[in-house]
Amino acid sequence: xxxxxxxxxxxxxxxxSHIGRKLAQRLKWQFVDTDRRLERAVGMTIAExxxxxxxxxxxxxxxxxxxxxxxxxxxxxxxGGNFPMNVDTYRILHRNGVIVxxxxxxYRVEERVGRHIGKRPTVDYDDLHNFVRTMMKQWEDVYPYCxxxxxxxxxxxxxxxxxxxxxxxxxxYSLPSEIGEERCMNIxxxxxxxxxxxxxxxxxxxxxxxRYAIYKGLSVEGIVRGYGGLLDEDIKPLDxxxxxxxxxxxxxxxRTARCLEFIEPEVQKKAAEFLRSRQIDALVxxxxxxxxxxxxxxxxxxxxxxxxxxxxxxxxxxxEYTVGxxxxxxTVLDSVNKIRDTAYSHDRVAVIEVMGRHAGxxxxxxxxxxxxxxxxxPEHPVDLxxxxxxxxxxxxxxxxxxxxxxxxxxxxxxxxVDYIKEHTYLQANLTVLGYVQRxxxxxxxxxxxxxxxxxxxxxxxxxxxxNCVVGSVGRQVVATPYEEADKIRFVFDEGLYNLVxxxxx
Length: 505
Description:
With 505 residues, the protein is of the alpha/beta class.
């Protein structure tokens, strides 16, 4: 049976915190102490909060903590010694964790508890002897709910940790670290966000994730404005109706933003804690490489994530196609065709600057589709002298106008125009398309791919194959683990690049 956490329970003084830390170090998992977690949440000690808030509110906060930590992945979780244990509590913990009860002889418990007089609420320090024995009697009714019980009276921490690990193996429980990527968890609620630059088809992906997840019996929440929304706790429930009438819209229904502070580990932890507080089991991220790095960071903190590639530039690992690319190319094509009319009418060279800071895919494909004479991309050194020679040769053959498509990462359009004017007799004009490339209704192909990616993202989460990027590889939709994604990417087509220039004279 697969379990993704180890839960330590037992009365105070049984050694849960000390043993838990050692066990977490042994497994290279995170360690979670519910008492310390509660103290951080309320800004005071357990005893202070209990006395100030009263038992009812105190128990409510404990139950909230229970729901949060029960959704951890690869964690050793230590529950406070006075945590209310009942059938419902154990049912929640059993879903994803091996429950290990730690017990100890009365004299040892008295010794350990007595070291921290006044720090534990509900403890009768004036009659510690009888208090301990009363508590131990109550815990005898709890132990049958646990997977097994370990006596911590004797033996060092290393010995007790070995005993726990051996007991887990004996009971034939499997832990995630022992079986690589073959992990399992209960997925009931997911969240979705869009991050980085917007791309046509993001709304189609949001719609696809939401409706397919609901079809599979999941609930869905939308994070507003990307990773920044996680920090601002800006979230809203999504249903089938709330994502209606968005498939044809450009931009992103959930909005987007770049969150530079998300590179900070403490910021990432805050975001992960918020997701757990909302009882969100997994996160679907729609965006580019930067968005994927954020998803990877959250996955390392125990939040299952899946990335859907959404960027017009096409420069993303784990896929040979990104949602938004086809629409962007068609937008450029439409603009170039209009600009061509003016260029021809006035015998001019039209220079069109398109997006592509690190990759020239938009320039290459739109240049080929529009019959551009020259394309300039970051993948090739820019030789403006050769550009001028090419233009002069073409115009010497009675060519009335020319189209040059330049990716912003290769050279600025201004540089190209200025050089042509200085070194030739030709009239050159610049058009910078800018954000128009990121807007507009998605093409049929982008809408279709967004839906297929969305379906795959939900399916892999339900299959337990999360922490991956969904992509198109060899015309198949596949999921690739983050650590292997760098092996797959949209390859610059050198043959197409050469063909553009061969046909452009």
